[in-house]
Here is the input.
Amino acid sequence: MKTFVGIDLGSTTTKAVLLDEDRKVIGHGITNSRSNYATAARVASQEAKVDGQFTLFRRALTAEHGLIDLDSFLGTLERAFRLEQFLEQLDDLELTCIGQIQGERFAKVASGVKDSLGEVFQRLRKEAQLKDVFVLKDGWEGWLAAARK
Here is the structure.
């Protein structure tokens, strides 16, 4: 199947849409632009492709089988995938941050900054493991309120 990606590169967010051969939308992606437009375009495009794969998977299972709770199954599968994807991106971001403290600019405080970054990324990894962290039923605020109970 041929697919086509359209990208809207903005100063704050970058969005991507994936179309099939019939010009039907099968996937969406969005990310912060982070002043790094090449990376933002790549991430949004990758998000759209992943979303498209889940859309095609959902269509195939719906057309072929009606024996499972498809929404529940795919929701669980997608949350697990998003967690792994997030953790991989977090590793990449940590390495990038550590790379930024190399050199003369941070020479006097590099050790402390590196320790602080380690603590921040350790907490982010721990929070990512919380139940339903990638399910924003009532939005991010709703999840935070539920997590604080």
